[in-house]
Design goal:
The protein is an alpha/beta fold. It folds into three domains: 6-108, Rossmann fold, CATH 3.40.50; 117-342, TIM Barrel (Alpha-Beta Barrel); 360-473, no CATH class. Helices cover 40% and strands 15% of the residues. The strands form three sheets. The protein has an eight-stranded parallel β-sheet with strand order 10-9-8-7-6-5-12-11. Helix 6 (161-170) runs parallel beside helix 7 and helix 12 (288-302) crosses helix 13 (319-336). The longest helix has 20 residues, at 415-434. The protein is elongated and about 80 Å long. The relative contact order is 0.08. The model is unreliable at 458-482 (pLDDT under 50).
């Protein structure tokens, strides 16, 4: 018996109708759904609100769900109540419907599961005031750290290590101690530390007295025999441990250290393992997200279930959050045997927000339809496009563009509006420089680092006011951004 295809009812405005129909004509056969389109009496969908949609929507019988424009404001409940069927927001840009349907794939059900533990080291923890240490630990935990690693100063004894660990544990945090100093380790373990970093042949004998799990490292990084010997010694004394073959920086044995990790897993197939990935992110001139994901993928495939990272150097200042997102991505890829692609947009920071183009024909049509005094900005084809009533200007240089606006006879731009345009043009230049998508009045997409845009500018306020006035008068509405 053939399964019934899903029927989806799409809502749009008059300006976007032709584009939406073209997109759906191509997309529906590929995805496998039937559709209908409801063109409401408004020029641009971005001006819709959900109560306004609910009063005007007509849903055909047999509709399985309604998709409204992603830029439509307001809660979905009024539309659900009016239609009696599930309602979802689509993408803000209809040209991204293919991506939107991909993000809603059934094979992403349950996405977010992970089994790699993150240890976040706070370097030189004894130097921090208690309040600062606690604030840092809480932030790292909020970003995804499972264990806060209290990093001590080599060659000295922190007098307040026990008190620091006790404070963190009392706050509900799991804590490890990173020290070879027996006094610091003993104080930290007595205060509640559950893991000691690290143990080799020089301090293995003391580990039997600590009563907690330890991380075993080789005496020197390339001495795999010493790692296994120390592990055997601890196993004989029933000390729980995880093996860390020590990741070395590029140029100092990086490839060989990866090979040693593979060899440790071959020799010890059931042993718990850890990898200090901060040795690479902190010591390589590159943004840390990509390195973190690659190393987490290596760990996921090899069965290394804990990683140690830190956030000292500025280019690795979001490593814990990256690792939290990355461990979910690699778990999904390995357990589902699927490529880690088009799954976790939060990890694409620099090049996130794939640029979309409207083209001059559509921008010229928009200029012909605009009837209010506000401007719309677009960034595409290596230029900033300024569109207003009967006006479409473009230039790579925002200063030149503003001069051309003045030359076009637009003398009604006051200082507040000029500041707003300057702010938006700066975002547009950034988008062009990095190959990002620019959308007026919306934050640039920086992946997990994106900050919500602060509502600003006369363009948005005036357009909303004009839309409300037109809606009240039941006349042809004005246009805003696409």
């Amino acid at each position: 018996m053939t399964a019934t295809r899903e029927r989806i009812h799409f809502v749009t405005g008059r300006l976007a109708e032709p584009s939406l129909r073209r997109v759906l004509a191509d997309l529906a056969p590929r995805i496998g759904f039937d559709y209908s389109v409801d063109v409401l009496n408004i020029t641009v969908a971005a001006l819709m609100t959900t109560p306004w949609i609910a009063r005007r929507l007509s849903v055909p019988p047999g509709t399985d769900r309604v998709v409204i424009p992603g830029s439509a404001s307001g809660p979905l409940e009024p539309v659900r109540e009016a239609t009696g069927v599930p309602v979802e927001r689509g993408p803000a840009d209809l040209r991204r419907l293919d991506e939107w349907f991909g993000a809603a794939r059934s094979d992403l059900d349950g996405y977010g599961a992970h089994d790699i533990e993150i240890l976040a080291e706070i370097n030189h923890a004894p130097r921090l005031a208690p309040a600062d240490l606690l604030a840092t630990a809480r932030r790292l935990a909020a970003d995804g750290a499972d264990i806060i690693d209290v990093g001590c100063d080599p060659g000295s004894t922190g007098s307040d290590v026990g008190a620091a660990v006790r404070m963190l544990v009392a706050d509900g945090l799991r804590v490890s101690i990173d020290s070879f100093n027996p006094e610091e380790v003993a104080a930290a373990v007595a205060a509640g530390a559950e893991l000691v970093l690290s143990v080799n042949s020089t301090n293995a004998a003391a580990a039997a007295d600590w009563g907690c799990e330890v991380v075993v490292i080789p005496d020197v990084p390339d001495d795999l025999g010493s790692l296994l010997d120390t592990a055997a010694f601890l196993a004989g004394r029933r000390v729980p441990f995880r093996l860390d073959p020590v990741l070395e920086p590029i140029g100092f044995g990086f490839a060989a250290s990866l090979g040693r990790a593979v060899e440790v897993r071959r020799r010890c197939p059931d042993a718990a393992m850890m990898l200090g990935i901060g040795n690479l992110t902190e010591l390589t001139d590159v943004d840390s997200a990509g390195i973190n994901v690659v190393l987490l993928g290596f760990c996921q495939e090899l069965g290394i279930r804990s990683v140690l990272t830190t956030e000292v150097i500025h280019w690795a200042a979001s490593s814990v959050r990256e690792c939290d997102l990355g461990r979910r991505l690699v778990h999904h890829a390995v357990t589902r045997r699927t490529l880690p692609k088009h799954v976790e947009p939060g990890l694409v920071v620099l090049r996130s927000g794939r640029p979309q183009e409207h083209g001059n024909a559509l921008l010229d049509r928009l200029a012909a339809d605009i009837r209010d005094p506000n401007f719309r900005l677009f960034a595409e084809r290596d230029a900033i496009h300024l569109v207003g009533a009967g006006l479409h200007l473009e230039d790579r240089d925002p200063f030149a563009l503003f001069e051309r606006l003045t030359a076009a006879g637009r003398t009604d731009v006051d200082s507040s509006h000029a500041f707003y345009l300057g702010y938006e043009m700066a975002k547009a230049v950034t988008a062009l420089t990095l190959g990002k998508d620019y959308r007026q009045d919306q934050a640039l997409d920086w992946g997990h680092l994106t900050r919500p845009e602060i509502a600003h500018g006369p363009s948005r306020a005036a357009a909303r006011a004009a839309a409300a006035a037109d809606a009240a008068n039941s006349n042809t509405p004005p246009v805003d951004t696409l």
